[in-house]
Amino acid sequence: MKQEDNDKRMTRGMVVLYLLLTLGVGIAVIVGIVKIQFVHGDEWRARASKREAGLRIDPARRGNIYSSDGKILATTVTECDLYLDLYNAPLLDDKGNPVYDKKGRPRETGPITDSNFMACLDTVSFMLAQALPAHSVQYYRDRLLKGRQREKSRRCVLIQRGVPYSVWLDISRLPGWRRGVVKQVDGQSVIRQVRAHIYGNLAENTIGFRNSREKNTYTGLEGYYDSILRGQDGIFNCRRLTMGIWLPDEPRERKEIPQRTDGDRVDTLVVQNKVDGQSIVSTIDTRYQDIAESSLRKALRQYGGSAGCAILMEMQTGYVLACANLAVDTSVHDYMEVRDRNVAVSDVYEPGSTFKTVILSAMLEDPANSIDTAMRLPARYKNFGGKNGEIKDDHGNWDSLSLRRVIEQSSNVGMCDLGWQLYSNRRDTLRHLVERMFPYDKLNPDIKTPEYKTHINNLSASNRDFLNFCYGYSTNVSALRLITFYNALGAGGRMVKPLFCRAVIDRNGRQHEVKPVVLNPSICSRRTALLMHDMLENVVENGTGNNIKNNTYGIAGKTGTAVHNYTNFKRYNASFAGFFPSENPRYTCLVVVKDIPAYGRQAATVFKSIADCVVAVDKRLSDGSVKSAWPTLQEDSAKALQRPYTEKGDQQSIERAYRLLRLPYQSADPDSRWVYYQSATDSTPSTYRPYTPPSGQVPNCYGMTAKDGVELLQSVGYKVKVQGYGRVASQSPKGGAAARQGATVVLTMK
Q1: Fold observed for domain 288-622
Q2: Domain limits of the chain?
Q3: Neighbouring C-alpha atoms within 13 Å toward the C-beta of 741
Q4: pLDDT above 50 for 640
Q5: pLDDT tens-digit profile of 433-449?
Q6: How many CB atoms lie within 10 A of CB 431?
């Protein structure tokens, strides 16, 4: 009995203890719930909201970059990284024995079975090789097989990066492959939006790369017009549906949402709709760019240069139609557009003889000089004092040359003698003349790329520095600045800024033209431009550039050869700069081939290839419609002697204009209201004769301004309608026709 009582007491004690423990746990749970709900409730609710709801960004689509001939140069495409889940093992039952199907084959567990893998192996290899031809079908087949054999236990094996989305999608749809194509790696989707250059390496430095130095920025046109191309990302509230899937939980109207409070400051984030970026039209013409790159690459391969550039510019607008920048790419062992190496804009070098054009133009503009282009200058060799004053030419057997021939034959001795005669005692004057004419300041072109400072050495430091400067050394320039000068010289002195963007396309499809920018309306006089034009033509006709002479169209240009490395005087920077067709210059071109054992004549052949392509493509040049826009100096002087005149108009207005121009005015009848101009003959000088509108006939208003024509017609009772602007080119009814008073006369202006 006693034992039974003890057992009962022990049982009751255990029950009481259990009840007390249960009560204690219950009380603790209740306290925890109350604490979580009321004490720390706001904190935990905020954490849950942050985890399950938040602001998501919908990236805007970046605008396209088009070429001037209508091709897409850069656009946004979807690409993926192809990862496969290659895990595969025999299916086992509860006892660890293999499971077989109805045909007696062992069943497998894994996303891609062996049978499905082998059935689609060749198809996947072929699809990858077509999309990414850098590797063969066999390469991708071996990669897949090795991955399957070695990595059967791995759930995520990288097969290939940068696979086009369409190919990735087709692979994921193959029989038995859907579950094996990995869609997320480390929580990040394998699908992404990237910038694609449709023509590969063509003009890549001009188009622009993603900047390796600054995050989420670009170089080239991409960088300069980033604010236009980028657009506006969409920001909206959303809630997590499942892992990695978020859905908007409210309309995406624009509003500001406070993010956090720091003292008195509240940081806000604007919730906004997505606005895709606008597109731009570059000045690059793919036809000219392709021939520029292929011709330059051929020359670099032939002579083993280190880098080079070829620039083609439209003379009147400054639009850069081609800009090839090639350097050695060690990854492919060829000359390519290398990232962050814009040879035309960023590289500076001593130009050599192409700079003689700048030096001579500056000398001709100096009012203190009276240079005769027929003057004789020494050639071959001359000592200007001391060992460092020895100058000699590497070619030619002439003891003296005229100034024209000095440029034609690119004589260093002749240029140094001219500079020594005129500026040996006033070297800073020559320096200032050159700096005023040549664009040494930054051009700030509309592409994002480094543009380094250029300068002229101290010409007073030594005679050698001054003599070197006279034939293109002791200064450094960039190719883009040098072509800007030649372009201005070809345009008669009008210097325009090089432009790489032709237009911006708004969201309605309208194009807004980027207008030319005039840097200097006149870097030199008309006479200097004509003289230099004539000399540069002779360089190709009879001088150092005669290897590109042709009978189809004229070329005016200058060869240049500069020592590239002073420890090896057999390596040069060869260049050729000029414009064409010389009869009516419309295009300027510059070619620089660096570090080659050859002279500027070799760079001229690249120039000729580009010019031939332009002449063949531009119908205005190839159909023979181009007429000379460059008169000779004699014709230009004769035009300067001609006095301005007006065909017909109000005599008082015409006389006032002559008086303001300080020109003599001849009139046969000073009292006449209307006069017309009569040209001079052998027996009579030019004069203004009275014009009396015939009674009953429509007056002849040809050559009048709109103001004078309207006033004359209304004074005799006719109504007037004006079309166009300028001066009267035609009228209806014609002058002298019979028309009733009150009739309407239409004046067409041009």
Answers
A1: Beta-lactamase (3.40.710)
A2: 8-53, 65-202+235-271, 288-622, 649-688, 693-750
A3: 6
A4: no
A5: 999 999 999 999 999 99
A6: 20
